[in-house]
């Protein structure tokens, strides 16, 4: 569980750094560039630490995870371009619940009753913290719904694939698939932009991103995917609110403070119950 918390914190920091870059670059550009930056790191890590190819049992869950991750990424980026985030993003809060259910159905790994209840509380509080409203009539809503299902399911296939592969190989495989699909489907333009201007931010963001991915995969080898995704979303949404207040002067209402406290308390109970 400690490694899951470590991963969740790195995801939160990455989201903050990515928000800084989003002022200068599109989501499609960032997705492709981040893939290009971290892929050599994963390959290098694999060459140094492992150098072994996974057996044939790896291919089915790995390809399934890669396709789902890529579809989720493309739909999420399309949703960012189409809709109002306050209306469509709350649906992403359900991914921990989906991951928990899919892990139970596909891997035979059920959550305990208490864990399921705590994840349900985290999902509900996160939904309310992000606005508490959602409409399928909103442009981009269908894309976010697809993203939620894809990301809730791909993490389950990640866990299955990691039974037959090293962390570094699987991270590189997924990154390559997401890069190829995003580049083909989104066709980001890179004209007249000086990416070196924010070089240090790209490097720092990529290091944090790589650490988040590797530690998340390590956590998946130890605990149920719903728990990993639950802590990731909980810490991510709370961190986004707090960092938004500190760095971007975003106001937090009393109801939002209440939801933050509920999420933190539920996350602490979830970590303790899961053996942190």
Automatic annotation (TrEMBL):
<feature type="transmembrane region" description="Helical">
    <location>
        <begin position="168"/>
        <end position="187"/>
    </location>
</feature>
<feature type="transmembrane region" description="Helical">
    <location>
        <begin position="21"/>
        <end position="46"/>
    </location>
</feature>
<keyword id="KW-0812">Transmembrane</keyword>
<dbReference type="Pfam" id="PF00892">
    <property type="entry name" value="EamA"/>
</dbReference>
<feature type="domain" description="EamA">
    <location>
        <begin position="3"/>
        <end position="129"/>
    </location>
</feature>
<protein>
    <recommendedName>
        <fullName>EamA domain-containing protein</fullName>
    </recommendedName>
</protein>
<feature type="transmembrane region" description="Helical">
    <location>
        <begin position="58"/>
        <end position="80"/>
    </location>
</feature>
<feature type="transmembrane region" description="Helical">
    <location>
        <begin position="257"/>
        <end position="275"/>
    </location>
</feature>
<dbReference type="InterPro" id="IPR000620">
    <property type="entry name" value="EamA_dom"/>
</dbReference>
<feature type="transmembrane region" description="Helical">
    <location>
        <begin position="144"/>
        <end position="162"/>
    </location>
</feature>
<dbReference type="GO" id="GO:0016020">
    <property type="term" value="C:membrane"/>
</dbReference>
<keyword id="KW-1133">Transmembrane helix</keyword>
<keyword id="KW-0472">Membrane</keyword>
<feature type="domain" description="EamA">
    <location>
        <begin position="144"/>
        <end position="270"/>
    </location>
</feature>
<feature type="transmembrane region" description="Helical">
    <location>
        <begin position="199"/>
        <end position="219"/>
    </location>
</feature>
<feature type="transmembrane region" description="Helical">
    <location>
        <begin position="113"/>
        <end position="132"/>
    </location>
</feature>
<feature type="transmembrane region" description="Helical">
    <location>
        <begin position="87"/>
        <end position="107"/>
    </location>
</feature>
<dbReference type="InterPro" id="IPR037185">
    <property type="entry name" value="EmrE-like"/>
</dbReference>
């Amino acid at each position: 569980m400690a490694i899951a918390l470590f991963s969740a914190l790195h995801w939160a920091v990455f989201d903050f750094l990515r928000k800084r870059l989003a002022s200068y670059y599109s989501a499609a550009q960032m997705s492709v560039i981040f893939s290009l930056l971290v892929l050599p790191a994963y390959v290098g890590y694999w060459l140094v630490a492992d150098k072994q190819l996974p057996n044939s049992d790896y291919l089915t869950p790995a390809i399934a995870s890669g396709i789902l991750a890529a579809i989720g990424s493309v739909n999420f980026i399309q949703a960012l371009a189409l809709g109002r985030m306050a209306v469509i993003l709350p649906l992403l809060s359900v991914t921990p619940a989906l991951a928990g259910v899919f892990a139970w159905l596909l891997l035979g790994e059920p959550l305990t009753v208490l864990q399921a209840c705590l994840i349900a509380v985290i999902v509900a509080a996160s939904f309310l913290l992000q606005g508490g409203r959602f409409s399928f009539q909103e442009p981009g809503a269908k894309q976010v719904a697809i993203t939620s299902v894809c990301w809730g399911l791909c993490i389950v296939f990640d866990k299955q694939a990691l039974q037959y592969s090293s962390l570094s190989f699987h991270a590189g495989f997924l990154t390559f698939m997401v890069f190829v699909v995003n580049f083909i489907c989104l066709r980001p333009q890179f004209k007249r932009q000086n990416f070196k201007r924010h070089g240090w931010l790209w490097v720092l963001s990529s290091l944090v991103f790589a650490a988040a991915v590797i530690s998340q995969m390590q956590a998946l080898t130890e605990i149920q995917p719903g728990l990993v995704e639950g802590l990731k979303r909980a810490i991510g949404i709370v961190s986004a609110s707090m960092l938004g207040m500190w760095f971007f002067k975003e106001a937090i209402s009393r109801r939002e403070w209440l939801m933050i406290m509920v999420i933190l308390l539920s996350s602490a109970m979830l970590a303790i119950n899961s053996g942190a």
